[in-house]
Design brief:
By secondary structure, the protein is an alpha+beta fold. It is built from 4 helices and 8 strands, in the order H-H-E-E-E-E-H-E-E-E-E-H. It has one domain. The chain has a 6-stranded antiparallel beta sheet with strand order 2-3-4-8-7-5. Strands 1-6 form a two-stranded antiparallel sheet. Helix 2 packs across helix 4. The chain is globular.
Length: about 150
């Protein structure tokens, strides 16, 4: 057997091994929802409310998580949506809609981004922006571990 034949056989075997390891899309685990992870991490019910006039700023963290700062005090919030809203990542602005001029976790309030209306699942209150972002980073890391090691939701 020539070295070229051995190399060819080696490449074929390596290719077969790689294709056997590659999963199908059905094999990949479903990512846990960010709001489920934040519920678990914060031990809160996610039903906090924010008066719309008190909103000082916001930023989209993911297509299902928005960071919101309050005008008064040092409160900061993470707002999760019921489902992923692709327009949150690309929109220049977000509108807030809710009863009584406030938004609350629980589904009665919405984020409006472009032409997409995104129902709010949960709102989590934090004492600082740093605490909110630390919780979000921890939830992201936990989600990555669950996805990478196929840990069930």
């Amino acid at each position: 057997m020539t070295s070229m034949q051995r190399l060819t056989i080696f490449c074929l075997l390596a290719g077969l091994q790689l294709s056997a390891c590659a999963g199908t899309p059905d094999d990949s685990p479903e990512l846990p929802d960010m709001d489920e992870l934040l519920l678990e991490l914060t031990h809160e019910d996610g039903r906090d409310c924010i008066r719309i006039p008190d909103i000082d700023g916001f930023g989209t963290l993911e297509d299902d998580v928005v960071s919101v700062s309050s005008r008064f005090g040092k409160r900061h919030y993470l707002v999760t949506t019921v489902y992923r809203c692709s327009s949150l990542q690309s929109s220049m602005g977000v509108g807030f809609q809710g009863p009584q001029n406030e938004i609350c976790g629980g589904g009665s309030s919405q984020l409006v981004s472009g032409e997409e209306v995104c129902p709010i699942a949960h709102i989590f209150e934090f004492t600082s922006r740093d605490d909110a972002f630390a919780a979000w980073e921890l939830a992201k890391a936990q989600r990555e571990v669950q996805q990478r090691y196929h840990v069930p939701k």
